[in-house]
Design brief:
Number of strands: 5
Shape: globular
CATH superfamily: 5'-nuclease
Largest sheet: 3 strands, parallel
Number of helices: 6
CATH class: Alpha Beta
Strand content: 5-15%
Structural class: mainly alpha
CATH topology: Rossmann fold
Distance between the termini: 10 Å
Radius of gyration: 14 Å
Length: about 120
């Protein structure tokens, strides 16, 4: 399974660590860091010390996953063909290249790539 950052974050937040046996894209590190930043600075749901602990857990989870990068030229083609962000298309391309399931919590992304790849949520696993 190919996990995007939204699914990694949700899996950890919901203590579903056992499902994170799969692959993700290297850019998940940055997207997860940004998600923690949002929790600290925008939502103010955690303080900086809690944010640092969350970030540590997220990065340790990534260390246990298979981190790959897709063919970037193919990613750009997906962006244009399916009106995706480059970030989202990176995970989709990994799923295509590995003939694997994409796991995402992004409903808009799931709709856009339905039929391109098999798409699921963490809660479907």
């Amino acid at each position: 399974m190919i996990f995007d950052a939204s699914s990694i974050f949700v899996a950890i937040k919901n203590l579903k660590l056992d499902v994170l046996k799969g692959t993700t894209c290297e850019l998940a590190k940055f997207e997860l860091g940004n998600a923690v930043w949002k929790e600290v600075n925008i939502h103010e749901s955690v303080n900086i010390d809690e944010g640092l602990k969350i970030l540590d857990v997220l990065m340790k989870a990534l260390e246990k996953m298979n981190v790959k990068n897709p063919n970037w030229s193919e990613v750009l083609k997906l962006v244009v063909k399916h009106d995706l962000t480059f970030y989202d298309a990176s995970y989709v391309q990994l799923a295509i290249e590995n003939s694997d399931v994409l796991v995402t919590e992004d409903k808009k992304l799931r709709e856009k790539v339905k039929g391109v790849v098999d798409v699921r949520s963490v809660f479907d696993l």
